Amino acid sequence: MSEVSISVIVPVYKIEAYLPKCIESILDQSFTNFELILVDNGSPDNCPEICDEYAKKDDRIKAVHKAHGELLSGRKEGLRNAKGKYVAYIDGDDWVDKFYLDILFKLAEVNNSDLVVTGHFREFDGKIETIRPPYTGVFDENDIKNSILPKAMYNGAFCEHEISTYVWSKLFKRELLNQILFEVPDDIVMGEDAAITYTYLSISKKLTISRIPLYYYRQRHDSILKSIKNTTIEFYRLGLLKNFLEKKLSPYLDKENLDTQILYYLYSLILVRSGGLIHDASGNIIFNPFLKATKNSKVIVYSSGSFGQHLLSSNYKSNFFQIVKWIDIDFHEMSIGDNFVNPFSSIVNTEFDFFIIATINPSAFKSIKEELVLMGIDSKKVVQINTDEKEIRQLFSQLGFDKNLRQ
User: What does residue 233 show for φ and ψ, rounded to 5 degrees?
Assistant: First the structure.
């Protein structure tokens, strides 16, 4: 094979139903000068055989088999085997547009960029939502250090990133990725993409952001992150992430800015993982982020995504709220306890005290709230999420972190 332009790395674990579509979408690329590295992460299903079969059919494909580890270990193993000038990560249950690599490559080459960021599609239960970066452009090292990085994790609107955390829908230079990826601790399993993306961004000299969506992210019912079970381990890992980000970004950001960005980013991770209702080791709720909605309030919950599912699961254990309806515009059959997802229109004539929009995306929150008001919902009943910095710091203190977020 001649010199490879792009190494496409696909970590693989327990996704045999989705993997062929992912691989076929890569092999169907208009851009052909790539290698495909399938990293079997000790998958117990038929994924190893699928990887080997495709490797036999196309000499651009390399199947790598390793003992099971976290996703990060698969990303690292793929990079160890990569030979391309650039690296593109694709998750094995997702797929990409025919022109995905072609456009990524052109954006990188034309603008001499170290990092390319694009939009993506979110596919959930057959429905597709388009997600685009807030702005586009080509940014030099000065822009990155002074404008992009200070808002990368938190731009002042809870919890909105200037640069998405995902390593997919991006193109990296292999030589730069080699400098940072292997330093990310394997024990970081919550926010590991952020550890990679933001550290890489800090050493980039040229960034190109495009709104073109070409990556299809599949939000699976069975892939929603599990709720927090062992708080000791969870918060230890959270501490690892915090320490790593602080160490890598402190040379480029002032302490106050970095501290605030990390605080709100970690808070968003905890909220989604816990469903908002945060318990102590004894199972007692020590933090309720849903302002005004108190214990035993009659609540309608909007969203059957990750946050919504975790909120329903957490509430099922604690019976903190009386959840009278669970709805989503992306209606599909799903249940947690006695609660089933209902269509958006089902809220008519439902008595409730408060309406919780289970999202940490302020843009999504605003648009959903506007739709609810159009349907006659009192805007005063729509619950805001607590973003008071003092109270968030008190929460971290209760979780075992000191004032500098160290455990």
Answer: -70, -45
What does the angle CA 372 – CA 269 – CA 170 come to, to the nearest 5 degrees?
90
Sign of torsion over alpha carbons 189, 193, 196, 201: negative
CA distance 134 to 181: 26
403 is a domain residue: no
What pTM did the predictor assign? 0.89
202 shares its domain with 166: yes
pLDDT in tens, 342-385: 988 888 888 999 999 988 777 788 888 998 899 889 999 999 89
Extract the tokens encoding 108.
């990188």
SS3 category, 111 = coil
- Contact status, residue 360 vs residue 366, Cβ threshold 8 Å: no
Q: How many distinct structural domains can be found in the chain?
A: 3
**Joined tokens for residue 363:** 């843009």
- CA-to-CA distance for 235 and 213, rounded, in angstroms? 34
Q: How far is residue 93's CA from residue 218's CA, in Å, rounded to a whole number?
A: 7
* 82 and 209 inside one domain: yes
Name the residue range of residue 272's domain: 231-282+389-398
Give the integer Cα–Cα distance in Å for 187 and 9: 21
